[in-house]
Design goal:
Helices cover 22% and strands 22% of the residues. With 110 residues, it is an alpha+beta fold. Strand 2 and strand 3 form a beta hairpin. The structure holds adenosine monophosphate (AMP).
């Protein structure tokens, strides 16, 4: 989507500290970390939120979780939280579906 910050990051049009990438998924450090490790995993396809998921996105959502697992293994994380905020009332500020990977000393509840 044209003015979507995470679409631009996924395309490399806005700089980010990328930690994972494949055909469908990109992962990068959160610019304002709420934990020692705070990574965002996003689909390259623009999906506004969980509310906008369709049947066709089933496999993609699996890929997102598996990307989180891969990143966690690469960073040797023993435990972590995976969080998806949904809608403004659910704390979602960026309207491009993303999975937060948070680990160790989580400072804020997000
Ligand atoms: P949410 O509140 O679930 O929508 O989370 C949005 C997250 O995106 C926040 O944790 C922000 O710190 C993060 N964020 C916003 N802009 C950027 C950016 N340009 N690069 C990396 N992370 C970002």
């Amino acid at each position: 989507m044209k003015n979507c910050v995470f679409c631009k990051i996924a395309k490399g049009e806005i700089p980010s500290e990328r930690v994972f990438e494949n055909k469908n998924v990109s992962a990068f450090l959160d610019i304002n970390p709420k934990a020692k490790v705070h990574i965002l995993i996003v689909p390259k396809k623009h999906i506004e939120s969980v509310k906008h998921l369709q049947e066709i996105d089933k496999e993609l959502m699996g890929e997102i979780i598996l990307a989180a697992k891969t990143v966690a293994e690469e960073k040797n994380l023993q435990g972590y939280k995976l969080v998806i905020n949904v809608g403004r009332e659910g704390g979602q500020l960026v309207d491009h579906l993303h999975l937060h990977l948070l680990s160790s000393d989580v400072k804020l509840s997000i």
